[in-house]
């Protein structure tokens, strides 16, 4: 089932949807467990589970029959199930490379079958999956896919409901917490007011508030204390403050009052004269306060006495001026930071060097001058010093005014207060650029020397003049291992060699010490004991004055070269032995084709046909083979190997020859007898172009013949396609071995009939074809008639007489036709028409047939949209009970009103629906609709619904019927399911299982169209059908055919004997009705009783009171 609005979303969008729904943290749910249990029983699997997938993990939310923990998402099967809105079905996980290595497959619970339906929050939004699984491989029908999708929808709905319950509980808890916090906030507000009063007293400050609604000004007691007045003296606060401000600062007061009236913040310092006549410096700040609606509700402000700090500031300015003159003479750059690490002052040389202003440097601004690579580590060290209150010592690069960077070293130490807190940091910057350059030069020199040592693929050791090891290259350390490499340092280099070679090693050291290099080769075992062969050079290392200061020993492992040398020698010996023992004939010739080598096999071969020997010329011995010389010359000129086959006329055999250029300018020839292989190859080619069963040309060969014929002539070429009628039923009934014999006999008759008139082939199955040149259409049709006629005599297969008929479709290429596919298509259409008229006939292609095919294709396309467009509807034909003379129920019949074509006959679209596979969804819709509408009818009435063969083959049919009954509320005994005899043709065990499952639901089972199918009467004995319906073809013969009347009587008696209700279809006359009543039939249906019509459930009359006359 596809969701028509499926859209692709990114993984980030999917995760956002998952977080928005908030279902990832949902705990256990009994409802989800019930859905899992239902899925496990519906599909008869050992376990089922529901999982949610976040970015990296699968979280099981419910499971039955299995115990899964959270799993990495990449190891799960559900990760694949959420990649599409469709159900993922894996019949056998071990045969699917996506899952065969999954821990759930390779380990417990050892899943072999898996089906997963995505949990869709919306089309394309897949949050998890409902999964069913088994430990054995299984198939999973399309009906089951639909059921699993519906269960997944139910699971998704339950997840949403469960989350909503959890959220409701959380919201109630949150409301409770809000109420608690509100009460706590009121208590806290009272405490803050008390604390504010104490703080104003201690800090010599006061606060004020203006209510914007009424303009009321409120002062704290601290405001009165600042002006030296008593709070309870009856002063007007605004007038008292205005009188206290000195005249020069009245404009500041006016600015503050204007800001209060406009509702904007302000800040300034203002001077007042208190009640004792003292001038006091007050810092005044005010700002607006908004209510919960975001509107200005009041202005609040604070005044602080800063008179003392003003005096301190004056003294500090004098001290700073003294300090500035002192530090300007220092080559270092002093700086000061506050206790939080914010720079408050930097020496003037900083400004000169960097070009930054003092203002830009303060706070964190100094970091803008740092090199980008040094910013993070410098900041980290500064933060660590601030946190631990320990001195800072770090180095970083600073960008100068010129744009270049220079290295500086920063020192800083904290000045601590008595309580241990930091009051300030005092630091300095020292220019260390020249020292850093010297260090970098030295570092690069050491790194270069180390890279030379470590970059060498050889075993490199640096020795002092005494021969002791001072350093080892990377390769040497790797081969010795860390422990041995550490022990070697400081030890004499000769001690690492076998005693038998130490004299040579010491001589090499002495030579290098004297300034002369030395080289030698010897073997020395590896650390693991494996023997190795070394090529060693020992050379002096000189300083700038040419004096030897060290010795460089380079040992190259040449073990591979030594082994290769030995292997080459061994290979040469082995090659000679192989050439002597190979079954191929080997001859080696030089540039002039004189033989330089022959192995024993070649000597034996040429000995029987010539006198060729080593030293002789190949062409002197075999002049008749000079034609091959061109191939050999090409090998010599291009230096490339050649392979070809040649017939050796003297020996009478075919040879396969391989010629290779050799290193001596000649050719090595390998040749063998391939006579039998060629014969086998030719047989394979024959099999590739012929049908192994009949010996006729196969489809590949026939297509080639047809293409060649069209290339020679593009008109007058005819193609006849022959297909055996009902051969599948014969094959299924008698078995494939008998079917193969029949095909062989058919091929023999056709071969004799066609003769030289055309090219006969078996295309596959029971389809044969003939290509022939047509003189005229009559000749082609005559051949087709003869082909059909030759198959009319019965076949005798092991005493069984079998009759086979055939249909033939014919097409003749018109002028301009050059496509074999067009001819095939036209013949196939003609064949389809020949079979449609009943088989056993020959039909020539006409353009009208193509139009018919196009019509069927259009119907097939539109039928897929009919349900969606609402073009299908049901009509109901009544059934008359002959005993009570009343209508007992209705048969639901499907109708299609096409928006363009009008009413389309069921005979047109039902076969197409079955062919395209649409009969299942359409049949399910018919069942649902009929049950819903019949549920509103009087309880005595029943409704009959036809079940197609395709629906009946589905294991989910009983489940679908049960669902329709449950959703509609229709009682099971009021539903009749009509099944034709053709439904019961195959798979008897499956048929019986489905019939009994439906019977167990309580519905009534009707055997429809009795007398027209091919089923065995044993079904009437094995299964208790509730009703038997006689086909209308028998009823139409009442009064005209004695044999038909005899069959009707016998059928009625058999039905009554088996306790089945007998119903006759197609009753159109009162004579037919009365005859059936007289012969004991229980029910009739047909135009006499009533034509099919729409019967809304709300307008159905009391059917129990409807008489024949009323119905008619």
UniProtKB/TrEMBL annotation:
Residues 319-389, 571-607 form the PAS domain. It comes from the Bacteria. Residues 266-318, 392-444, 518-570 form the PAC domain. PROSITE patterns: EAL, GGDEF, PAC, PAS. Residues 715-847 form the GGDEF domain. This is GGDEF domain-containing protein. Residues 856-1106 form the EAL domain. CDD domains: EAL (cd01948), GGDEF (cd01949), PAS (cd00130). The lineage of its organism: Bacteria, Pseudomonadati, Pseudomonadota, Alphaproteobacteria, Hyphomicrobiales. InterPro entries: Biofilm_reg_signaling, EAL_dom, EAL_sf, GAF, GAF-like_dom_sf, GGDEF_dom, Nucleotide_cyclase, PAC.
